[in-house]
Each structure stands twice: as C-alpha cells, then as structure tokens.
Amino acid sequence: MKKFIALTATLSLLISCGSSDRGELVGVRGKKWKPEKPYGMTLVPGGAYIMGKSDDDMANVQDAPTKTVTVRSFYMDETEITNSEYRQFVEWVKDSTIRTRLAVLADEQGLTPGSGGIGEYAFKDQEKEEKSAYDQYMEDNYYSVSDDPYAGRKINHKAKLIQDPQKYPDEFYVEVMDSMYLPESESYNGQRTVDVSKLQFAFKWMDIQAAAKDKSTGNSREKRSKYLISEKVQVYPDTTVWIKDFSYSYNEPMHNDYFWHQAYGTYPVVGVNWKQAKAFCAWRTLYKRAYQKAKKQEFANAFRLPTEAEWEYAARGGIQSGTFPWGGPYAKNDRGCFLANFKPDRGDYAADGALYTVEADSFDPNDFNLYNMAGNVAEWTDSSYDANSYEYVSTMNPNVSDQKNKRKVIRGGSWKDVAYFLQTSTRDWEYADSARSYIGFRTVQDYMGTQSTGNQ
C-alpha cells in the first residue's frame, strides 16, 4: 500500500512538472463566464436602504419599524408573471404527464419505437443497448432499488402528440388521453374538460437553513437526506377565486375566461397559492437548465420568490423613504391621473380606468424598470410573516424562513385595495395554501458576483 501511495505521489509530481503552470499556484481554470441577464428581467443593484415605515403608520399596525438593512444584487421580473407565462408551465406539465403515461403503458404492453402506435412514445432507454454507461450505472445502483419502478426513465419529447381524437393511433393512446379528461357525463356545452387534478409537478428542494443549524453528529449523507424535501403540487390555478372572494357578486365571466383566454394573456396570473408559485420557480429553473445543459453552458442560479426585504428594496426603485414606488406621497400625478391600479374610493373600482386587473406592463415603471410594484395584484414573497420580525432579523439580507409558519408575506396591494396597501412599506400576509383573485407573484434570480451595487 505504501509503495502504491509513493508511486501515485511521484506520478502527480511528474504531471505537475509537465504542465504549463511552471509549478506556480494559478488556481483551477474553468470556462470563461460573464453574467447573462435573464429574459424579461432587470438587474436590481444591491445596496442599503431604510426598511419600514418612515412616515405615520395610519393603520397603527406597528409591524414595520424603520431599520437600515443591506441586500445583495439580484435580477427581478419586470412584470408580474402573466397568464400566458403561467400557461406555459401548465402546458409543459400536461405534455409531460401525457408522455409519461404513454411511455408507461407502452412499457407494460412491451411496445418499442418502430412497433407503431404508442410504441413511438416509449421511454428513450426502452432498449438496454441504447443506455449510456452512466445511465446503466444509475439504473443498476439507484433507480432499480427505488420505490418508483420508472425512476430515472427518460420520456420521449420528440414524438409529436396527436390532439385530434379522430387521428389517435391505437386504443392505448385513446385510453391515456381519456384518462386526462373528466368523464363524458361531467361535460357540458359541447366541451370536454381536462381533469386539472392530474396536472401535478413533482420537484425536490433542500431546506438549507434547517440543515445548517443542525448541530447533531452522525453520517453527513443521512443528515443531508433528512432535509431534502420532495413535493408534488397541483399546478392549475384556482379559477373559482373570482366567485369565492366576493359574495353576492357576479364575476362568472372572470372565472370562465380570465386564465385560459388569450384576451387576458398579458394580464397577471391569479388564483395561485404560495406553494404553486414555488413550484413555478422550480420548473422555470429546470426548464432553463435543461436548455443550458443541451448547449453545454454553465448553469445559472435558480429562480425563486423574492424575500420581503428584496421586494421592498426593489419597489422603492432607489428612492429612500418614498411612500410609493414613484416616490411621492400621492396616488395621482400633477395632471390628476392615477399612477396605479387600485380602489381609490369606496365602492368605486373603476376610477383608475380598470375594474379588475390590467396588463402586467401598465402604468409607468419605477426607477428599476419594474412595473406595477404598487397595485394590480399583491405579490407573494418567500418570507414568513411575523409582526415582530423587524426587531430581530439580520441587517444583511434579512429574511424569516420558517417552514412551520403558514402565514406568508404578500406585498404591493392590489386592484381591490385602498392606497394604504400600495405603500412600499406596508406589510400584509396570506396563508400559504390560499389562492386569491388579487394575489400573483414575480420571480427573482441571484446575481453572480458582488461588483454591481447601488452604492457605486
């Protein structure tokens, strides 16, 4: 054994002498990398600001005392996530669900590509000889011992799905497609509706906060697996919120059309709870990284919900102590025009030009080029709500991430709120499993590096 170690050390020395570093400490050289601004996002340069209410707390909530904090740089969606963008997520989940069901049934029937019918949708590794050495190793050592018999199997995304029922290739394809819809007995008006309960997105995430605080000794892999959380979330938004949120009110047209009709494609998605917003972030990360992997590019940081402190910093747009994102203390400009979509008067929702929501890029953006950081829809943040949190959170990237606390902070106010809730410092909350017709979200991505700050 000692001879082997000595030989290894000698070989390492020879390799070092033959390299181009001349025996100097030059570091590990990787691919050249530069920041890439994600599509539809803007860079919010980090810096310090006074978080909390710098003016009178008219509602006397007393949950936002002033506190100077500093946040790091990050990219943020210029607008709220729109119906069209969220539909891309839903359609991806639907497409993947159908393809997986086709592949499973093909596997059960022993069908393979070339055999026709749903065999064209069989798992890509249906034939053992098609597996790479890596895939075979993972199959033998991990997937074969998993509780899921189809773990690690790759679905075929190239075969085009057939939408016309009259052109379904075989009875197995009919069986799969039929399983995705509500029974014929539950259809009306000549429409057969997709069973949205089948549209579920499964993902994993790690509770790094809890893992970092675990002081117990033991196997590091066991500790890691303890904080690796698997979730499966139904992704279709709750369109009934337009009815449930308002008693004795006729909002059926919004329930019927708002999410799926292209007339509302650029309007902010609503009816999405906190867990669904988190699932969207996980999918967006997966979707982007799949492209980057195919192009052999470096992975970008994950998409996520903003923390409460990040959201307020972004909403202020670099204006210290401004009441609203545009800085001034009034909700109208000098020409008497409203600067956001909200409820300006008792019972009068349309004085600002809109009864419900407006397009996500309506009104002027703030100085960070962010639209509707006040009004339109309130927005989910990643932070848990605690009325006293400003008293104890860190002054560097403050956040309260408490998985047991089901109250999550929402910010910005909405189309049905009075001006107080539009103020950059006003805090509000909703339960994580609740969906509302006036709550949406936007995502952020951490900026790689520290050279971009608002203080430069």
TrEMBL record:
Sulfatase-modifying factor enzyme-like domain location: 40-444
Taxon lineage: Bacteria, Pseudomonadati, Bacteroidota, Flavobacteriia, Flavobacteriales
Transmembrane segments: none
Protein name: Gliding motility protein Gldk
PANTHER family named in the record: FORMYLGLYCINE-GENERATING ENZYME (PTHR23150:SF19), SULFATASE MODIFYING FACTOR 1, 2 (PTHR23150)
Secretion signal, residue range per the UniProt entry: none
InterPro entries in the record: CTDL_fold, Glid_motil-assoc_lipo_GldK, Sulfatase_Mod_Factor_Kinase, SUMF_dom, SUMF_sf
Superkingdom of the source species: Bacteria
GO molecular function: formylglycine-generating oxidase activity
